[in-house]
Design a protein that fits this description.
single chain, Rossmann fold, 2 domains, six-stranded parallel sheet, globular
Length: 228
Amino acid sequence: MNDAAPHTPPRAVLFDLDGTLADSEAPIAACIAAALADHGYTVPTAAVAAVLGPPLRGMVEQLVGAVDDAVHERIRVAYFRHYDRELPHIQPLPGALALLDALAAARIPLALVTNKVEAGAFAQLDAMGLTARFAAIIGADSAGAPKPAPAPALAALARLDGASAAFAAFVGDRDEDMHCALAAGIGLRIALAGARPPDALRTAGATHVAATLFEVHTLLLGRVPADA
């Protein structure tokens, strides 16, 4: 990480979920590939991983082309059948719990903004024991439009007692996260590199790029966590 930490902590922090707080992208990609295979589509897991980020239908159509509502519904049901088996095994990424603890200790309100449907977000947070950490949980179906539209971030800020976007932070790992945060006017936009190259994340709107959540911890709170 070469970015200097801001002078003061943000007044609210919005987080993406998959690949940002949860070590979930590999199992999600595998479950999507399996659901497609159940319906005659052979798509390598690596190809699925490359398009993660949008809601499920958007990813399916990037991978196999347009599908009608009935086919998509069958793929969706198959995906959740595979995903429900994986859900109990998904864990927070290294540094996630320490970061959430530190933000709670600093009394900084938190929201989750994901392109999962809201019920799916609650299910994954419940499985990891993290639901109570967030004052707002916004899914792809919560605000009228998913990321990269600004609506989910604006809805989250509204639920955080109207927290000011200019003094808030957004932490994510995909272009959609940075586009959403930028369009919502969020002042501090931290991208976790890995899923996307740092230059691409900066082009998408990141003000800072970090390699790990330990680096995110320093950017948000100005100090390195003890367990880093």
